[in-house]
Here is the input.
Amino acid sequence: MSALSALQSDQKVVFHARDLRKVYDMGEVQVHALRGIDLDLFAGELVVMLGASGSGKSTLLNILGGLDRATAGHVEYLGKDLTTADDRSLTEYRRHHVGFVFQFYNLIPSLTALENVSIVTEIANNPMRPQEALALVGLADRMDHFPSQLSGGQQQRVAIARAIAKRPQVLLCDEPTGALDSATGIVVLEALDRVNRELGTTTAVITHNADIAQMAHRVIHLSDGHISEVHVNDQRKRPEELSW
Amino acid sequence: MISSLTLKMLRDLWGMKGQAFAIAMVLAGGVATFVMSRSVFESLTLTQTTFYRDYQFADAFVSLKRAPESMRTRLAEIPGVQTVETRVMAQASVQVLGYEQPVTAIIVSQPDHGQPILNQLHVKAGELASPAAGNEIVISEAFASAHGLKPGDSLLATINGRQRRLRIVGVAITPEFIYQLQPGAIIPDFKAFGVFWMARTPLAAAYDMEGAFNNAVFRLDAAAKEPDVVKAIDLLLARYGSVGAHGRYYQTSHRYLTEEFKGLNQMAIMFPVIFLSVAAFLLNVVVSRLIATQREQVAILKAFGYTTGAIVWHYVSLILMITALGAAMGIAAGASLGSAMSSVYMDYYRFPYMLFHVSPSIALTASAICSVAAVSGVFYSVYAAARLPPAEAMQPAPPARYHVSFAERMGLGRLLSQPSRMIIRNLERRPVKSMLSVIGVAFACAVLVTGQFFGDSADYLVDLQFRVSQRDDMTITFIEPASRAAMHSVLAMRGVNYVEPFRNVPADFRFEHRHFRTSIQGLTPNGNMHRLLTRSIKQVDTPPDGILLTDHLAGMLGIGVGDLLTVEVLEGSRPVRQVPVVGVVNEWIGVYGYMQLPALNRMMREGSAITGVYLTADSDAQSQIFRDLKEIPRVAGSTLRLQALRNFYDTMAQQMLFFAFFNTILAGSIAFGVIYNSARIALSERSRELASLRVLGYTRGEISFILLGELAVLTLAGIPLGFVIGRSLGALMLMGFQTELYRFPLIIQHSTYAFAATVVLVSALLSGWIVRRKLDHLDLVAVLKTKE
Ligand SMILES: Nc1ncnc2c1ncn2[C@@H]1O[C@H](COP(=O)(O)OP(=O)(O)O)[C@@H](O)[C@H]1O
Ligand SMILES: [Mg+2]
Here is the structure.
């Protein structure tokens, strides 16, 4: 019995997507970013999404996170339909349930590390203390630095602290290491792994780096808007064991 | 505990302090104009009203030849009359030591003891005249300061043919003579004309008015109907040579004050309306562009689960902080400029006090207008950013679609360097944004033109009135209509080269239900001294029959060529006649009817009477002529054309120019604020792109050229458009700016355009210089570190 089936049998479904499609209408051309995705994500699992650039990874993640809407098909979060949700409920959803980590950190330049976390905890229901979240990612001593005074890896860890501080059910990370060197990237991945383990947060990490996939419970391959392969890691690697 | 979002707002505000200040400046310019103009106007009106009330300005007035004092009780019995005060008013010719030109004065009686009941005196120096010495007078302040006279001085006056020495005991002002105009004149000359007060007994003795009066003033009941009372007064006094009672409307000082305030009010509406709308428009553009640069941060906040409302409020509060700063600056500046301006007006009108106040509603209105403009700019752009799904907004704005520019397609491409091509493509890529920038510069330029062009109009008007239309060197007026012999005695004087007689008949012009009091000027056929002109400055001669009207008067009466004008003469036997209107003439100062002198004499059924003469004289003969004139007893006064011209500048024009000057300063602040903002926003929109170019090896000079070149193109395109808009705004301003006193033609000199362009260019250069310094310190690493 594989680790996955063990997980699936006793864990509930967090995301449930069927025939998810996304078309970007660019006037003269239509870009089919997602061409029918069927996908279930389970509570507490760490999924890595792999795929070439342009394969639809970000699009899928954004739809799961309520940042964008599918053109067709439907997706449920804990039984609630995200495809038909109005703007207000999507905002609610993002505010209380989802943590985002973006490739380019997207910190607010005029706020310190601590304040960048506070801006999210202030509107959450049961958040950690911002200091706690920063300590989790190993940045307790950089709380009063502005983004411009932090390295790329440190900025990304602030972004992770910001994403987890509200204790979200799901953590969605779009190429969190994409802009980082491998040593720094590993520190960031350790932070994600730790959150997944210690808080049980369902985590989806996008990458186009196959090595990173080895730390996932499951690896989902996307190509050209389809899921081409789902692969279960029997032996997960710890982030510090990775290298690229 | 201050929320992080508030903290962000404050930090962002601090981060953009230079720009925030420039935005605040635009706003302050608009608000200040509004506050200044409205508060000055309101304060002037309030002061006038208060002065009228405190010093018992009369409600009705009548002048007559002579009536026995016993008529006083009859007048008091007229229903609606609350108080009557009879007076003696005497004309005098005056000699002031050291001033060679003829001076005339009106001497008004005051009660022997104490203040009059109506039209009381505000004594500025000295005291009221007492009857005992028989020669004590109080003189008007304007006259006193024009000649440097003070209590204790004396002057010679000829009253009723007898010269006497009058001793000045006081200097005063009254609501009756705020505006002091020689009868018949339209421009005040404080040196040539004065108002004196003397105790009733000695004045009556000197003027043969013992037991009689020739002037009365009335206080009416609040409920009284003025026309009825006027009619009743006329009925009683007709046989005593009354020229017709009238209410305040036709009281000279009040009427001129009213007209002048009307003009000021127009300016106090038009300037702020134009400036504030321009400021509001520019603010809207600037703010929406500013917020547009925050698109990514809007998306992040949305991604975190902040509601659109919270995000909108975040930026609204940011802008409101700036607006508050601008409004505060504007209110402060407007109040202090307004107060400075008011004290100038106080001096000019010689009000005893100036009740300057800035009413909260003025300040609130101005601030509210600007806030709405700014906030709507926020709404628009925050919504534009928040409407996008956050996923999309967080992407760097997709690479804009560039085209090979029109200029390049025209084959000019090879002539252009790569940076020049970037400038042109960038301008063409965002035609709306480029257009808005051009419009911004254009409006900045336009407000400068509107602030400045009044001087040009005044110069043109003066040139037309005092050089093209009026050709005499001097105008001499007789006390009463005289025969042609008077003209010959003037011509006989040494130094006089040429004379031309004229007749001036005060009259009430009526057409349908409208009427207006002014006078008919009878001019010599084919005369040369007073040329009537059409709008296209062609000379028109007075016709043998019928009357010509000033175009503005024809408009007021709603009368046209071919209509019959009813003329009620206000002198002599007061005949009423019908005269056909045969044409209109264009005049910028005053409103009159013009007839040929013989035709006017015929209408009056009089011989060849004249009221005065225009003359030309040798330039060195002036003093001689003044001396000789004093020997001619019937001369009431004389005006020098060049003196009148100077007086025009010193009085009427000055008020307008002064007002315009203050507004020009504010226009300058608007212009600078707008241009600086455009430059700063362009910098923040493009700094990443420019830094990337630096990384690729472009020099500072080259990237500066790309950005500043674009600004230069936009600025240069904005200036001519600004001229066009400025001219239209000028026309708009003048539309409401037509009074009986004067109208301003829309004349804009090259120098005004040049001034506006210079201010715009200097603002652009200064902004360019600041932007250039920022470009030199562009953080290249930051570009590499973050996205795009
Ligand atoms: N906002 C958008 N407008 C138009 N096309 C888009 C947009 N976002 C993504 N795409 C297109 O959709 C496809 C999938 O994009 P994306 O999900 O970002 O891929 P990935 O993240 O796997 O690189 C690509 O072809 C991309 O060009
Ligand atoms: Mg992607």
Observations:
- The interface with chain B takes residues 58-59, 62, 65, 67-69, 87-88, 91-96, 98, 100, 102-106, 108, 110-111, 115-116, 118-120, 122-124, 148, 152 of chain A (CB under 8 Å).
- The pocket of adenosine-5'-diphosphate (ligand 1) is lined by residues A 24, 26, 31, 33, 51, 53-59; B 392, 395 (CB under 6 Å).
- The first strand of chain A starts at residue 13 and ends at 25.
